[in-house]
Amino acid sequence: MKVKDIVEIFENFCPKRLAYPWDNVGLLCGSEEKEVKKIFVTLDTNINTVKEAVEKNADIIISHHPILLDGIKRIDYSSAEGKMIKLLIENDIPLFAAHTNMDTARGGINDRLAEMFDLNDVKIIDVHTDDETAGLGRIGVLKNPVKFIDFAELCGKILKTTVRASGNFEKTIKTVAVASGSCSEIIPLAKSMGADVIVTGDMKYHNTIDMTLLGICIIDAGHYPTEICVTDIFEDILKDKDVEIIKSENKDIFRFI
Fold first, then answer.
1. Sequence-distant (≥ 6) Cβ neighbours of residue 10 within 8 angstroms
2. Average pLDDT over the chain, rounded to whole?
3. Is residue 59 within 8 Å of 96, Cβ to Cβ?
4. Does residue 240 form part of some domain?
5. Could you tell me if residue 16 is inside a domain?
6. Number of structural domains the chain divides into
7. What is the CATH number for 165?
8. Is residue 248 part of a domain?
9. Which of these, 249, 197, 184, lies nearest to 223 by C-alpha position?
10. Distance from CA of residue 227 to its chain's centroid?
11. Which of 7, 58, 100, 243 gives 53 a disulfide partner, CB atoms 3.0 to 4.6 angstroms apart?
12. Strand pairing report for 60-63 and 95-97
């Protein structure tokens, strides 16, 4: 299998057109013609994960978070990004990123989150293209309504993390919105669709106050915990191919002390 075959597989699963305009997805470094036997899958691409891929003799990196998102005018080998790019090129490791197109795609991260919370009657919150089967966030109904305090505890168990919760802890939670990573901007839309609570990450203090005043409960489960399932999705997409899948050991940058 060549890199270009992997690009085609992902283009069929999560096409570039599903990515937001500001995003940087697809093959970001390396040759499409390289033969691939070992695929390294990761949530993050940084100097540490690239070093890990090199140590494990990976032929390509499939990442959720892209590099060069803001663009660069020079490659400085003394900078963290420069060192990372140098390491990729020196070791001939192509890098492919599936970012917001993986967040929005059918079967992508937000659908996986809806499955993890066992939601019924799942709908897309924010359809941003002409493809109505894809979009950011999902909203669905719990089989058994619970109080917010109990839902917060359940959320921590499902996502294997410590969560921050804000809102009326006695409120009965029936309709749940999930939105991977940083998705505070879709909270009003989720509320308008009937969400009692939204599970997302990277909430800001004052924004959380404003949103809870609207009457919606908020779970900030963090960026990493709401997106790390992407490595399982990558593995599922590639499991029938004649390649070895290596999952990164990269951990959440945050620790709860």
1. 62, 96, 98, 237
2. 96
3. no
4. no
5. yes
6. 2
7. 3.40.1390.30
8. no
9. 184
10. 4
11. 58
12. parallel
Quick: pLDDT tens for 136-190. 999 999 999 999 999 999 999 999 999 999 999 999 999 999 999 999 999 999 9
SS3 104: helix
The amino acid present at 197, given as its one-letter code, is: V
Quick one: tokens of 210? 């404003």
Same domain, 81 and 133: no
Selection from 189, 178, 191, 176 nearest residue 141 by Cα: 176
97-127 tens-digit pLDDT = 999 999 999 999 999 999 999 999 999 999 9
Is the Cβ–Cβ distance between 254 and 222 less than 8 Å? yes
How far, in Å, CA of 142 to CA of 98, rounded? Answer: 29
Distance CA 44, CA 154 (A): 26
Measured CA to CA, the distance from residue 154 to residue 149 in angstroms comes to: 9
Domain that holds residue 66: 3-102
Chain segment 12-55, per-residue pLDDT in tens:
999 999 999 999 999 999 999 999 999 999 999 999 999 999 99
pTM, entire model = 0.96
What tokens appear for 225 in the block?
């915990």
* Whether residue 71 has pLDDT greater than 80: no
